[in-house]
Structures are given as structure tokens and as C-alpha cells.
UniProtKB/TrEMBL annotation:
Positions of the Protein kinase domain: 12-260
Compositionally skewed regions (Low complexity) per UniProt: 300-316
Keyword Repeat: no
Principal EC category: transferase
InterPro entries assigned to the protein according to its UniProt record, in alphabetical order: Kinase-like_dom_sf, NEK_Ser/Thr_kinase, Prot_kinase_dom, Ser/Thr_kinase_AS
SMART domains: S_TKc
First and last residue of the signal peptide: none
The protein's name: non-specific serine/threonine protein kinase
Length: 457
């Protein structure tokens, strides 16, 4: 039995367990020579194998692992070492802080077609790199795809055999490894395995991501084709083209790549248009004059200067009042929200306690995305899950969005945005109940449009 603290090959220290499965166990470990974290996978022989089958797998498994180690691509997990230990072989891989796509779908729901197209392009690039190294994956499925904390898509956990010779040897011995719903039909019925088998599994994986379930929810449906996709939209032709039982009729990698590229740019354009529309709505709200009250000075808003973050002609949004952190910034807040000054800036709280918005100067130097990743590593939030940490262009800066569990309020969603205006940067931290996120977001957009330097500074 392997336990935490064990030393493998006098080099790799076993840490906490990560995954336990039919074909082995995976631990987080440490390379004692370099000090870096690694993943340690012990590949076991299934108890169901006959003595002859065990001999075949025992011979080929380490050879195949060394073949996987030849693949060098940012979307493929890197194999660092292969070790033998009796009936088991150890594979040492890079450690990628991440969530599997299976966990993403389980916890966050089905993904939009545009995002699935982007993931599909990364997976296709990973598979192409493997094929160029004369290796098949043969176990592409959501649990074997990682979304790294830095956003990278990583294909991991190649099957026990991937080279053509290894696959042929195991097939001759009657050994077929794979996962129901994701294994290509020709592999189940004695046909040859090639790149088209990986393309089938890619299609089954993309189907699961966009529909929220495997393509064959009812096993009997496999006779005629996958269950009809309902959420895939522009991805539907790709899914149906990949999930064809006859490999000769299946879409090629080039056809899939072309379709996915068209879907991904279309989704990006649609997202950009929605964002522009949201900004336009916020700007329109800012531009509307009214009899709002300046909550800080106790005078009508007409006595306040225009927001430096908006155009010179913009006025205070109706129903909002100016709040200023002297020498730092000024921002409009909804009337009725409670302000609390802190050493770092200003916190505004809605009636009832949620949402809250904290605004402060951002004085850190260096790239913004790594700075937010560092802040994330220092955060201690119960039930924390990252949505993304990405650069932003309008306004310039960076955004960190995540969910967590508040012990009183329950599920929460938060957005931390670094905004650069001229030679100054500001940090906004917005937190709202997850159930009311969409309805509260327009308030954030309105406030963001009014943020600017203290006009008296």
C-alpha cells in the first residue's frame, strides 16, 4: 500500500491523494531533487485480466508511458519520468493547479457553445501534437481534460496504450481500455484504432460540455446516433459530424478545426457586442440628469462637478450621489447605500447588507493578471471557485471573478476589477448573492462608468 510520506525511486515523496480509479491511483507529490510539486500516478493492472493479458499489459504499459513523454505541447500534460515497481508502473507528471472539465460542468453547468469551441480547438491541437509523435490518446473525456488556474486547457491521462504497436498488441490479446459513452464504436467491435477514434471521443467530450451530459444518455440510442443536442447551437454540425459510427464518414480534423474557428470568433463578436451594449446602457444612465442628491455634501447634485471617468458633458446618474475619497478618487453610489470609510478606501453597502462594493486606489506595480493570481493564492474563502482571471481592455485593466460560500448569506459571486484611467489605477471589489447576480450587475456598470480621480486633487 502506498501512503503519504512514502519515497518512490529515492526521489519522489508521496503527498495527499488526488484520484483513485480502476487503473490506478494518483497523488500529489514532491520531487525531492528540485523541490517542485509533481503528480504521481501508479498504474495498476486490473484484477479482471487473465494471466496472459496481465503479461501483455505489464510489458507494454511502461513502453507506452515513455512514448507519451515524447509529446511536447502546452495543451498536453508533460510526463517527467516513468518508473517500474513490480506489477505497477509509476508515471511522474507536471502538476497543474486546475479543475477537470467534468467538475466544471458538474459545479457550474453546461458551457456556452463559443467557449466549448475554444476548448475544442485546444484539444484538437493537443491531439494533433500526439498524432505527430505517433501516439493516440484513446481516452478523451471530460475528466481527462483540465482547465488550469491560468486558463490553459490541458489534455491528460493517456490510455495504457497509445502507439500503434501497443494498441495492436493489446487488441490482439482482446484488451480494450476506454470509458463508456466516450470510446469510439470501432474500438468496441474489433475495428482498427486510429486518429478517427480520438476524433469520436473529442466529439463525445464536446457534446458533454455544451449539453451538460454524455451523448448517449440512453445506451440504446447508440444504435442510430447520439441523443439530439438541444443547447449546442452552431456546434451541432460538428457534434453530429464527429459522432458518426462509420469512421470513414466522420469529420476530419481539418474540417473540425475550420468549423470550431468560425464558431469561436462568432461567439467573441457576440460577446463584444453584448459588452458594448451594456456599456452604452450604463453610459446612457450616467448621461441622464436629474434631481439626485449629493450624499456626501448634502447639496443638490447639480453642484457637483462632472465625473472625470465619463465624458465632460456627463452628469450624475439619477438616483445616485457622489462619494469622494480625498486625494484618491470619486465615484457615484446609489442613494440609500451605506458608506464606510476604511484606511484603504471606501465600502458601499446596499440596504439589507448585499451587494457591497469596495473601491480603493491600486498602487501595486507590475502586470495585473499575475498580481490578481497572487491575491487569489492569499485569499481564504470557504467554498472558493475561480471563474476566471483575465486581462480587460475597456476600460484597461484586469478582472478576477469567482464564487464562494458566505456563512450567513449563502452562495456568493464576486468580481474584483483593476481599472486603469490615465496614470492612475483603481480596484473595485463587488460581491453579491449568486442568485441575484444578473439583476445587481447593472448597478456595478453604472458605478464603474463614474469612477475617476478626486477632482479636487
Amino acid at each position: 500500500m502506498t501512503a503519504a510520506g512514502d519515497l518512490i525511486a529515492e526521489r519522489y515523496r508521496v503527498g495527499r491523494p488526488l484520484v483513485a480509479g480502476r487503473l490506478g491511483h494518483i497523488w500529489l507529490g514532491t520531487d525531492e531533487r528540485s523541490g517542485r510539486e509533481v503528480v504521481l500516478k501508479r498504474s495498476d493492472l486490473p484484477d479482471t485480466l487473465t494471466p496472459r493479458e496481465r503479461d501483455v499489459v505489464r510489458v507494454w504499459m511502461p513502453r507506452e508511458a515513455r512514448a507519451f513523454a515524447r509529446i511536447r505541447h502546452p495543451n498536453v500534460i508533460r510526463t517527467l519520468d516513468v518508473l517500474l515497481d513490480g506489477d505497477a508502473s509509476w508515471i511522474v507528471m507536471e502538476y497543474v493547479p486546475s479543475r477537470s472539465l467534468l467538475d466544471v460542468v458538474r459545479e457550474d453547468g453546461a458551457l456556452p457553445p463559443g467557449r466549448v469551441a475554444e476548448i475544442g480547438l485546444d484539444l484538437l491541437a493537443a491531439l494533433t501534437a500526439a498524432w505527430e509523435a505517433d501516439v493516440l490518446h484513446l481516452d478523451v473525456k471530460p475528466s481527462n481534460v483540465l482547465i488550469a488556474d491560468d486558463g490553459r486547457v490541458v489534455l491528460t491521462d493517456f490510455g495504457p496504450a497509445g502507439t500503434r504497436a501497443g494498441v495492436a498488441a493489446m487488441a490482439e490479446a482482446g484488451i480494450i481500455f476506454g470509458t463508456p459513452h466516450y470510446v469510439a464504436p470501432e474500438r468496441l467491435f474489433g475495428g482498427a484504432s486510429d486518429e478517427r477514434s480520438d476524433l469520436w471521443s473529442l466529439g463525445a467530450t464536446l457534446y458533454h460540455l455544451v449539453e451538460g451530459r454524455p451523448p448517449y444518455h440512453q445506451p440504446a440510442a447508440g444504435e442510430d446516433g447520439p441523443d439530439p443536442p438541444y443547447l449546442a447551437g452552431p456546434l451541432t454540425p460538428v457534434l453530429l459530424g464527429l459522432l458518426r459510427r462509420n469512421p470513414a464518414e466522420r469529420m476530419t480534423a481539418a474540417q473540425v478545426r475550420s468549423r470550431l474557428r468560425r464558431t469561436a470568433p462568432s461567439a467573441r463578436r457576440a460577446t463584444a457586442l453584448r459588452a458594448a451594449a451594456a456599456v452604452a446602457v450604463a453610459a446612457a444612465v450616467v448621461a441622464v440628469g436629474g434631481s439626485a442628491f449629493d450624499a456626501e455634501r448634502g447639496v443638490p447634485s447639480s453642484a457637483a462637478a462632472p465625473s472625470p471617468a465619463a465624458s465632460p458633458s456627463a452628469s450624475l446618474p439619477s438616483g445616485y450621489g457622489w462619494w469622494t475619497d480625498p486625494g484618491a478618487f470619486r465615484v457615484a453610489a446609489p442613494n440609500g447605500w451605506r458608506p464606510t470609510r476604511t484606511d484603504d478606501g471606501l465600502t458601499l453597502t446596499a440596504p439589507g447588507g448585499r451587494p457591497t462594493l469596495t473601491v480603493m486606489r491600486w498602487n501595486a506595480t507590475g502586470p495585473l493578471v499575475p498580481a490578481l493570481v497572487t491575491a487569489e493564492q492569499q485569499a481564504r474563502l470557504p467554498g472558493y471557485r475561480r471563474i476566471h482571471i483575465v486581462p480587460a481592455t475597456d476600460p484597461p485593466g484586469a478582472v478576477w471573478e469567482y464564487t464562494f460560500q458566505d456563512p450567513v448569506t449563502g452562495p456568493m459571486r464576486a468580481l474584483r476589477q483593476i481599472v486603469t484611467l490615465g496614470d492612475r489605477s483603481y480596484q473595485l471589489d463587488w460581491r453579491a448573492p449568486a442568485a441575484g447576480w444578473a439583476s445587481a450587475l447593472p448597478t456595478l456598470l453604472t458605478v464603474l462608468a463614474t469612477l475617476g480621480p478626486d477632482p479636487a486633487d
